[in-house]
From TrEMBL:
Pathway(s): Lipid metabolism
Chain ranges of the Phospholipid/glycerol acyltransferase domain: 78-194
Top EC group: transferase
TM region positions: 22-42
GO MF annotation: an example: 1-acylglycerol-3-phosphate O-acyltransferase activity
EC number(s) given by UniProt: 2.3.1.-
Protein name (database record): Phospholipid/glycerol acyltransferase
Keyword entries, A-Z: Acyltransferase, Lipid biosynthesis, Lipid metabolism, Membrane, Transferase, Transmembrane, Transmembrane helix
UniProt keyword Cytoplasm present: no
Length: 277
């Protein structure tokens, strides 16, 4: 966050609110961790429902209002592909999608958040290891074959939230998988923070949500706890399958364009297009 943005965020934030939110967040997390750990250990169906409930409450604790547009695909396992600008995307998408995330392998070693990611049955991949593409494809495919929906951030890194970076095509190899006799459903999803206390967020304050570049995590997280209510828009775009495209690159490009248009609409305040009849 720049000096101007940080100063503005501090002016809007409340340390008292931040302390209360932090205490409630930690208490809520400590209460749910053993419950989810048990559900995962015994392979209870609740291991997929608890994270969504957990993230919904976390969003409320953090003052994040999630506005959903479009319809989430629900027929069979789905590969959701989304833009990525913050660790807060996990809470927002986790509150509306019953699925597991695909994350870079480094996340597994993060203190606290790495443990939470493992409890949500995150699939960890080595994004820079080109030689391991087939292994990663098989790992993702095994989860999809088991009926698990997955949430993928194909940009490979987080952005400033004002734009969508090109999608990397390597992990789209799993889209060629067939679930039974049908191709895997792939659904593009746009996510964008749009308002702070009801006021359009704009470029200056979007870094209050976005975490990217060389930002330090702890100060950014504290800013999030202290700020007022944020509105984040999630748009589900029409689902597709690899059968409609000539290659996985063509599929990745289509998803990137759909997501980019959704982000542009959200940050500019334009209404989404009417649903097809």
């Amino acid at each position: 966050m720049t000096a101007v943005d940080a100063t503005g965020a501090r002016a809007l934030g409340s340390p008292v609110r931040g302390g209360l939110r932090l205490a409630v967040y930690l208490l809520w997390t400590l209460l749910l961790v053993p419950v989810q750990a048990l559900a995962v250990a015994v392979r209870s169906p609740l291991r997929f429902r608890i994270p969504r409930f957990y993230h919904r409450v976390c969003a409320a604790i953090l003052g994040i209002g999630v506005v959903v547009r479009g319809e989430r695909a629900t027929d069979g396992p789905v590969l959701f592909v989304s833009n990525h600008s913050s660790y807060l995307d996990i809470t927002v998408l986790g509150s509306v999608i019953p699925g597991s995330f695909v994350a870079k392998s480094e996340v597994a070693g993060w203190p606290f958040f790495g443990a939470l990611a493992k409890l949500q049955q995150t699939v960890f991949v080595e994004r820079k290891a080109r030689s391991g593409v087939e292994k990663q494809r098989d790992e993702l495919g095994a989860r999809l074959d088991a009926g698990d929906s997955l949430i993928l951030f194909p940009e490979g890194t987080s952005s400033d939230g004002n734009r969508t970076l090109p999608f990397k095509t390597a992990l789209f190899a799993v889209a060629a998988r067939r679930i039974g006799d049908r191709p895997l459903t792939v659904q593009p999803v746009s996510i964008a923070p749009t308002r702070l206390d009801g006021i359009p967020m704009g470029i200056a304050f979007r870094p209050c949500y976005a975490w990217y570049g060389d930002m330090d995590l702890a100060p950014h997280l504290w800013t999030v706890f202290t700020l007022g209510r944020m509105t984040v828009e999630v748009e589900f775009h029409p689902p597709v399958t690899i059968d409609g495209f000539s290659s996985r690159k063509a599929l990745a490009d289509h998803c990137q364009r759909a997501v980019a248009r959704g982000v542009e609409r959200a940050v500019s305040g334009k209404p989404p297009p009417p649903a097809a009849a």
